[in-house]
Write a structure and sequence with these properties.
Elements (H helix, E strand, L loop, with lengths): L7 E5 L3 E6 L4 E6 L8 H18 L3 E5 L9 H18 L4 E5 L4 H10 L6 E5 L2 H9 L8
Parallel strand pairs: 3-4, 4-5, 5-6
Antiparallel strand pairs: 1-2, 2-3
Helix pairs in contact: 1-2
Length: about 140
């Protein structure tokens, strides 16, 4: 199954494509190899554009495919990202689940776990897009009376 073909592109740059499946309230962000050439200002602009898309479309589920991520974060950008992007997603969005697709890079995996350390948003890392998609779509447990 070509999963991406079932999504519609809503934002595309040389570094990343953001797609959506509005009937399922899913946002899919796919990083491209060229992201290693992004400047910090380009990264910030991209992050704010993505945040705007997430908030305007009231997505409940995000899948971010970071297998091609090569962009280098420094400490200042990491603080900016946590405050101005990720912190805003957590505070202002309708998100219920956040799936991230990673390669086998332990460094990136550790960074992701650190990012979610104090967050109650349901999240999980995967190595394939198909696994992540299946996970975000699974039913929520029924609440006990």
């Amino acid at each position: 199954m070509d999963l991406i073909s079932h999504f519609s592109v809503i934002y595309d740059t040389p570094y990343k494509t953001v797609l959506m499946k509005p009937d399922e309230f899913i946002c899919l962000s796919v990083w491209k190899k060229q992201n290693e050439f992004m400047t910090h200002d380009e990264y910030k602009k991209d992050a704010l554009n993505t945040l705007d898309i997430i908030l305007k479309n009231e997505f409940q589920f995000i899948i971010t495919d970071n297998r091609e991520t090569r962009f280098k974060f420094d400490d200042d950008l990491d603080v900016w990202y946590r405050t101005h992007f990720f912190g805003q997603i957590i505070q202002k969005s309708q998100l219920k689940r956040f799936a991230i697709v990673l390669n086998e890079s332990l460094r990136l995996s550790a960074m992701v776990e650190d990012l979610f350390e104090d967050i109650t948003l349901e999240h999980k890392a995967f190595t394939t897009l198909e696994e992540a998609y299946k996970w975000v779509r699974r039913p929520f447990p029924k609440k006990r009376k």
